[in-house]
Amino acid sequence: MAKQGLNPRFNAQRETQTFAEIAQQVHIDRMPTWKNTKHGQQWINTLRDYAFPKIGRMPIDSIGQPEVLMCLSPIWTEKHETARRLSQRIKTVLDVAKSKGFREGENPVTAIKDAGVLPKVKANPKHHKAMRWQNVPAFYTDL
Hints:
The model has no long low-confidence stretch (mean pLDDT 89). The protein is built from eight helices and no strands. It is mostly helical and 143 residues long.
């Protein structure tokens, strides 16, 4: 390394970390900012359930759009809100990795969003039956 003009001590510390390692570190670093412990637990659990099985052991610098899509595509339409949050959390982990020098280039989550790769999902509202107006006075009396 020294003959190549590299600093052995600096480069030894810069071992490539995995996605799961960086994600767990981000979770620990942000613990004081969570609204409550349940929110913090949900943050890491979403990554653990949907991202770690597919990209958790991958080096953080080798994760691109195909790998992110592997995590998001299976749940994008069935569990859209979960997939949207997963997307945000993966993006955060990759952004932190870039800021620490473990990655370079554009965040693949941003590229996927900008390209419109995943289909648009419209939420179908579920309406409840309305109370007949004649029953409203009795309802308020009971209430």
